[in-house]
Amino acid sequence: MLISLWISRSSFLAVGILAMIVCSATRTAQTEVPAKIFAQKIVTETLAAHAELAGFELAATPPGKDQCVTIASNEAKGIGEKCDKDEFAALKTNKPFVEKEKENGKEVYDVTIPIHDNKGKIIATAGMDFKPEPGQTAAQITERSLQIAKEIEARIKTKESLFEPVR
User: Fold this and answer.
1) Which of 26, 40, 76, 148 lies at a C-alpha separation of 20 to 30 Å from 47?
2) Residue 58 is part of which domain span?
């Protein structure tokens, strides 16, 4: 019985020490993770509010940089990628750039649209991948992307606000 009690106490002590190590490591890991920016919050919340979107990203030129890149996305691997023809077309023309693509045998729409600050200046682009639906047209998708862009623009005061840290 004495051996059994000793094993129980030893096990309890080991579990307690292990729990302290895990908690300590978790706190350390949390402090090393870079702060999420407001642009990422917009991406997450926009996707949650719009079931018709399969993917969403924001691209802009970060402060102090001269290269347009993806600053927020539902795919972490996309963050930091250089802007391509989609983003540059939307930035140059101030109009949506609409592509119809095939994915898994279905036609899908990929729209890149300029995003403006509260003074009407282009500050970013929003890339929206729409889920395929029967009878979709480029005109319908373009109109829907303009509506979503207006919702986003209503939340953004300045380009700098896209990069502000949030919890």
Assistant:
1) 26
2) 36-166
Six-digit token string for 43: 């991406």
Token readout for 83 is 């802007």
In this structure, are residues 57 and 72 in contact, taking their beta carbons and an 8 Å threshold? Answer: yes
Residues 82 and 106 in one domain: yes
Length, in residues, of the chain: 167
Our count of domains for the chain comes to: 2
What's the chain's Rg over C-alpha atoms?
23
Task: Give SS3 for 166.
Answer: strand
Closest to 127 (Cα-Cα) out of 117, 115, 140, 143: 115
| Strand intervals (E) in 17-133 | 36-37, 53-60, 69-73, 97-103, 106-116, 122-130
